[in-house]
Amino acid sequence: MSTPLQPLSQTNRDTTLDLLRGFALAGVLLTFCITDVGAGANYKSTLLDDIVNWPKFLLIENRMYTTLIIVFGIGFYVQLEKARQKNVSINAPFTRRLMGLLLIGFAHAIILSTRDVLMFYGIAGLFLLPMRNLSNRWLVAIIAIIFIVIIPLVSMVADGYQVFEFPKPNNYIDHLKHNWKVFTLYHQIYPIYFEMLFHFMLGFIIGRTGFLQRMTTDKILRRKLLIGSLIGAAILIPGCFFWLPKLFRQVVTGLPYMWQKIALATGYRLIWQVCMIACVTLYSTSLISLWRTRRGKILLTPLAAFGQMTLSNYLIQSIILVPYLLLFDKYDNLPPFSGFILFLITLGLQLVFSSWWMARYTMGPFEWLLRSFTYWKWQRIKKPAPNENAINTFLLSKTINHL
Fold this sequence. Notes:
The protein is mostly helical. The chain is 76% helix and 0% strand. The protein has 17 helices and no strands.
């Protein structure tokens, strides 16, 4: 007899995933505050600006979204395994979850911030369902087809790249008009969907093979990954950000045939993806290694709580920052170092709030809303009092003894 599919209990959660989510979301916030808000075309960077801007550019930007997407794929595998253990179908709850992300993402993109990625998650995630029963070999083959064939093809018909040149207004009515204009164009950049699907599937394979679990428990494996990814990142980061783009532009302009340009661009993207994966591996192994120590666990516990309510914190960032930026005329008027200070204040407040909230509740407020919609039942959000747990344990033991 099957049992209804329900969310993971707090005792069954994989804290490693929460830690990775929290770290990645902190990087997303840093990129938003330093880069996405903008300092204006005529602004001249200071030394302090460069001190925070270059490390963000070389070490943080793009890697954090990649981490979040991969973790999303791992989380899908966790849900799938739980459904199999309970002998129930994941189709309905996972589809509702994606629909919920689409609804929340649409409201977020129009009302608050153009930086929304939830709709891309929702749309790309729908492709995971029909592929969940394929073997790893088939999944790798599909990943290769997506990377080598589909992304170059959709790149030829993609539009909307001009959204990155739109000036950002600093009054709310124009902000809404700007958001709608960006929304209609940004979602015509079709390669983004397939790049997300590429990383979703990669995360799913990582979850299915138990690789993340082995990273968590196998110290020797972590050391090898740490050394290998450190060497890879040290070589690939300078190449991808300084040498390779210039070389690519020089070579591609001299190629006479389109297929040659596409092949060269595919090779360029492959090197870029290897660089991204090396950085994600380096950060992940470093965090897990630190988490496995006693002092590291104390230090990173607030970050894990922050990551446990990733959806809520992602939306709360917009709820706090967008009104502030509009009210004080900060869009296209926030120097990088000032953005870094804003990042530190916002992250610090969210770490404190997340620790306080998760000590009293089982999930974040928006997680509660999404899970209630996902499982089509209001979820319990408040943690039971200690005496309530004792009473439940006593009653359960009495029931077992009676049976």
